[in-house]
Amino acid sequence: MISMVMVAVGVYARLLKHAGEVAMAYLAADPTILLIAVGVLTFLITFCGCVGSLRENICLLQAFSVCLTVIFLLQLAAGVLGFIFSDKARGKVSEIIDGAIVHYRDDLDLQNLIDFGQKEFRCCGGVSYKDWSQNMYFNCTAANPSRERCSVPFSCCLRDAGEAVINTMCGQGMQAMSYLEASAFIYTNGCIDKLVNWIHSNLFLLGGIVLGLAVPQLVGILLAQILINQIRDQIKLQLYNQQHRADPWY
After folding, report:
1. CA trace torsion 16, 20, 24, 28 (10° rounding)
2. Distance of CA 82 to CAs 75, 86, 234, Å?
3. What is the C-alpha separation between 81 and 74, in angstroms, rounded?
4. Does the record carry Disulfide bond as a key word (predicted)?
């Protein structure tokens, strides 16, 4: 039921969007596509497990067990590879953030996601606030006719606790300033370093989350295999009884 709700919400949000062709080409950054994909995958896996256990179908139970095993191994491999090749993982994250910056104005969901991340982590851009020059609206070249030239999004601005209304133009012209000058008005540190520092500071929390996801998967795999073995034993017992009922000396 949860997976069906996820798919429904993702499809509904996708239908309401009026993104341009450029944003459509960058579907990897679209949260609605991710929500739909996770929902569909979750529905298929849970369907196999639920119907397979109710109908005592070995094929569905095997599919459920195999899918959970593959997902668990992929998670384990991603964690190990991310730890071993941390530099390459950092570079990949940097590419994703740069791509999201380029398409910031093309997709409202992506824009809200970036603004949320920058406000929560108190950062701006990927490596620094000047990364926003990659966006065609914020580009700081003299040939850029945009009114937002050399600016940064409002989510980069230092927050005033007493400010009742958000000033969406607070990032105007910040890229033209030096780091020292801009630091009085906006967050100048990039989000990549902030994210890495947050991960290092919350290793126990992340470990608990990973363990919380892994344990149900392992329990599901174990229970599926136990049920498969019980079904096979019942089938063998039924065949044995049928063979001996046909025996005149039974």
Report:
1. -80
2. 10, 5, 45
3. 10
4. yes
For residue 173, give the DSSP letter. T
Residue 91's SS3 state is helix
Confirm if 123 and 194 have CB atoms less than 8 A apart. Answer: yes
Position 174: which residue type?
M
Distance of alpha carbon 177 from alpha carbon 183, whole angstroms: 9
Q: Where are the domains of the chain?
A: 1-55, 56-243
pLDDT digits (tens, 9 = 90+) for 30-70: 667 788 888 899 899 999 999 998 888 999 999 999 999 99
Name the strand (E) or helix (H) holding 9: helix 2-16
Which class for 124: exposed (0-12), middle (13-18), buried (19 or more C-beta within 10 A)? buried
For the ranges 44-53, 162-171, 189-198, 228-237, which has the lowest average pLDDT? 162-171
Higher pLDDT pick, 210 / 41: 41
- Cβ atoms of 163 and 139 closer than 8 Å: no
Side chain identity at residue 33, one-letter code:
I
The Cα angle at residue 52 between residues 51 and 55, in degrees rounded to 5: 75
Tell me how far CA of residue 217 lies from CA of 63, 74, 143, 231, in angstroms.
14, 12, 55, 21
**Nearest 5 degrees, angle CA 121-CA 123-CA 124?**
140
CATH number for the region 56-243 comes to 1.10.1450.10
> What is the pTM (predicted TM-score) of this model?
0.66
pLDDT digits (tens, 9 = 90+) for 89-143: 778 888 889 989 998 988 787 899 899 999 999 999 999 999 999 999 999 998 9
